[in-house]
Amino acid sequence: MVLRPTRRGFMTGILAGGAPLVLTGCDVFGLAQSPAVSEALGSADGLARRVHRLLGGDVLAPEFEAAEMSPVFRTNGNTMPSSPIYRALANGGFKGWSLAIDGLVEQPRRFSLAEIMAMPSRTQITRHDCVEGWSAIGQWTGVPLGRLLGEAGLRPAARYVVFHCADDFDGSPYYESIDLAEAHHPQTILAYAMNGAPLPIGHGAPLRLRVERQLGYKQAKYVMRLEIVASLAGIGGGKGGYWEDAIGYDWYAGI
Ligand SMILES: Nc1nc2c(c(=O)[nH]1)N[C@H]1C(S)=C(S)[C@@H](COP(=O)(O)O)O[C@H]1N2
Ligand SMILES: [Mo]
Fold first, then answer.
1. Which residue in 61, 141, 187, 227 could disulfide with 123, CB within 3.0 to 4.6 Å?
2. Residue with CA at minimum distance from ligand 1 atom 24
3. DSSP letters for 195-231
4. Is residue 192, in this structure, part of any structural domain at all?
5. Does residue 148 contact residue 162 with C-beta atoms inside 8 Å?
6. 61 in a structural domain
7. Residue ending a domain, choose from 29, 55, 81
8. Is 83 near ligand 1, meaning CB less than 6 Å away?
């Protein structure tokens, strides 16, 4: 693919840090809409990811000052899961909610919100970039995902974390996934607070993913279950996420 060198992963790897984001929407959408090209992009995902890491895979996403926070942080996608189970939990102030962790872990288990909030936390002010062409700067507080995975204990074959969400689009559940390197990045957190207040339902209460070096659609809201897997092939449509399956968005959405 001749286009590869101009794609996001390359650009921001080189510009590292606070370079203004230029959303190359046509690269992502125009091309990805053709099934043939979408397949080619899909197979090249591995390359983009490797190059991104080569150019500084461990670098932090830019963080901002409190004064730079957006006065309004809009919501996007689903803003209230319709599942009766979720509705009941929300009505109870999420007191009965717990996060399941299963798959390739030493012992499948659940964490209550109180347990998650009692763990060491990280707070970060970052910029959220949606492929649809909007950005917002917000503050997130949550437990580093690596810490939670450590508590669960990963089995040697583990490679990906799948985030199963409470919501769906026309019956297809929203889900996302990242690999273990991204899961252990210091800014990858499961957030329960936003802008200093409990995470609002519109933004994914009670727990949502923040994976700060990737685009908005990777930031799974309403996370109910973490499934640790060796391959994404058996999950959903096999491409690693709801939008990846539905319209061919890149699985690795590096900014
Ligand atoms: N469960 C779930 N997660 C989701 C979505 C969704 O519809 N459902 N939308 C995604 C998209 S495209 C974006 S831009 C962000 C929006 O997050 P916000 O509503 O907090 O702004 O959530 C992402 N995570
Ligand atoms: Mo988005």
1. 141
2. 220
3. TTEEPPGGGTTT-EEE-TTB-GGGS--SEEEEEEES-
4. yes
5. no
6. no
7. 55
8. no
